[in-house]
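Q: My labmate handed me this sequence with no annotations at all. I'd like to see what the chain might look like in three dimensions before we decide whether it's worth expressing. Could you predict it?
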Amino acid sequence: MSEPREVDLKIVGGTVVTPTGTRRAGIAVDGGKIVAIGDDSLLPPARKTHDATGLHVIPGLVDTEAHPGCYVPLRDDLATESIAAVTAGVTTWGIHAPQTRMGQPNFVEYVQKEDVGSFHDSMPHFIDAVESDSAIDVFATYMMETDQQAREIPEYAKEYGVTSFKLYLQAMSPEAEPNWPGRRAGLGAGFDDGVVYQVMENTAALGYPGVVAMHCENWEIARIFDERLRAQGRTDWATWSDRSPHFLEAQHLRQYGHFAEYLGCPIYVQHATTPETYREILDLRGRGVTCYAQTGPHWLHFGKEEHNAWRINVPLRSRENNPNIWRALRDGVINAVGSDHVVIWGDPSYENSYNENIWELRTGFTSRVEMLLPVMLEGVHQGELSLERLVQVACENPAKIFGVWGQKGALDVGFDADIVLVDLDKEVAVDNSIVQTRSGWTVLDGRTIHGWSVATFLRGKQMSKWEDGAPKAEFIGDADGEYLRRVPGGDRPGVLEEV
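A: Here is what I predict for the chain of 499 residues:
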């Protein structure tokens, strides 16, 4: 009998985690794919062997919402932030970007209506930037603004494999003030319900994995609270949440969820943070709408009352509300987690970003992608969810919803060998010195996290390591990222929970 063929890599000694359970098993990798999973003694010989004894082995995270290129040229952000991502266990990014923020050579800091064009004009730049500068794999979610963009959805799906589209509903009218998001973030045209209707109509026609992601937060009403709170002299950080109360998130979902029901369009609710929103999600599902929901590490870990809670859209809610988000994540009301990673404009240092006055504090905070897995692992440590559920909401469900399942999101034969080794016993006293993001700081500074990733592999190549005794994780890879095309019109894989 001939000897079995040698493979590129095998990872032995670890405990493999899937949504259905854990087991001691090894993984064999060849040509960037998983080719075998089984008892270590049964794996074929390998040119490299990695010992994962004492560690848990999970798939690379599929982070479906990130915004590199939002405030600086895309290539500049990818060069640093994709390293932060892969070092933290994320191997696939769904980058949300408007047409003006996709790697064009001329970066417009404040976008005007005349700057906004077709995604046909920008997509070659985007793909080139990803494949030359990213350390992780990437798919695109277009942030839609115009009738032309909406009408071209079938072309985008066919030519570029783009099947997910974002409606940044808080920025429908870029002329309104104060604090209106938009021009600096690349949105300059503004849009109305007619654009929303066409985006949903044409996305629904794609079939699976066509989906419309929605940022639900009615700033047309928030501006009234904004004016009142300023008049009261409020400057504390909790003011940011009070200017955009719970019902503004839920009301937007109810309004645009009705469009989704009428058009048969699957929707994905970004940053679902309130019980009122969860009731709307369940109501829509009860009416037959395919309605998914996401939350993120900052809403799970912080409350608006805390000193380092910071300012973000949608806002952080009260500390008393956090158990509601964890419960919704456990019970399947929320299907996925995402980082919403962005590095703020200009000098992103802590000193330049911080201000005691909420109106002067810089919106958004960095290092979110580096918070994603640690906060989830802390949730496992605290008993908020199981490790199996973590894999489901951070790996499997995002891959299924956004159409990269079969390649990403699981430790299974035929999938990409995107693998993260996790030490559940590793206790990390977080400080700013351990982050990879170019801003150099994290809101987790001063927190203790139980459980951390100690190695990441992208398609079988080791990209990072945190060796015993080392002060931080080290990036040891290259810009090996690939652009991921998705194919519309397929069958929806498996059954995602429908509560």
